[in-house]
Amino acid sequence: MAVYSIWESQFPPEASAAGRAVTERIWEDMQGYDGYVGHELLHDLDDPGHLLVVSRWESREHADQVLAEYADNPNALEANRLVASPRRRFVAAK
Q1: CATH for 7
Q2: Residue 16 Cα distances to 1, 26, 48, 78, 82, angstroms
Q3: Helical H segments across 1-94, by residue range
Q4: Which of 12, 27, 39, 45 could be cross-linked to 55 through a Cys-Cys bond (beta carbons 3.0 to 4.6 Å apart)?
Q5: Which pairing describes strands 36-43 and 50-57: parallel, antiparallel, or unpaired?
Q6: pLDDT tens, 27-81?
Q7: How far is the CA of 12 from the CAs of 23, 42, 45, 85, in angstroms?
Q8: Which range of residues forms the domain containing residue 44?
Q9: Confidence bin at 3 (pLDDT 50/70/90)
Q10: 41, 75 in Cβ contact below 8 A?
Q11: Are 92 and 7 in contact, with CB atoms under 8 Å apart?
Q12: For residue 8, what are the CA distances in angstroms to 1, 59, 68, 79?
C-alpha cells in the first residue's frame, strides 16, 4: 500500500523564494531514493512562504528511512534554517 508523507513549511516573506527553491531541491533529491513514487509541491496563493508537499512512497518504511538518512543533508539543513517555524511532517494513507 502506498503512503503519503506530507510536509508543511512556513517561510517568512523575505525567505519565501529561497525556501521554495530549497524545497524544490529536496524533492529533486528524493527521486533517487528507493520507494519514492512522486510528489506535488503546493504553495499558498495568499502566502507564498507557506508550502505543502504531498509525496507518495511505496511504504512507510521507505518514507521513514529517507527521513532519517536525509536529516543532515545540506538542503534539509538550509530549509530548517530558513523556516519561520519548524517544518511539520505526517504520514497518511487513503
Answers
A1: 3.30.70.100
A2: 34, 15, 6, 13, 9
A3: 16-30, 60-70, 74-82
A4: 39
A5: antiparallel
A6: 999 999 999 999 999 999 999 999 999 999 999 999 999 999 999 999 999 999 9
A7: 14, 16, 15, 9
A8: 3-92
A9: very high
A10: no
A11: no
A12: 23, 20, 17, 11
3-state secondary structure (DSSP) of residue 60: helix
Q: Which residue has the cell 529517507?
A: 66
CA distance linking residue 26 with residue 89, whole number of Å? 14
Edge-first strand order for the sheet with 85-92 is 36-43, 50-57, 3-10, 85-92
C-alpha cell at 2: 502506498
What is the total count of domains within the chain? Answer: 1
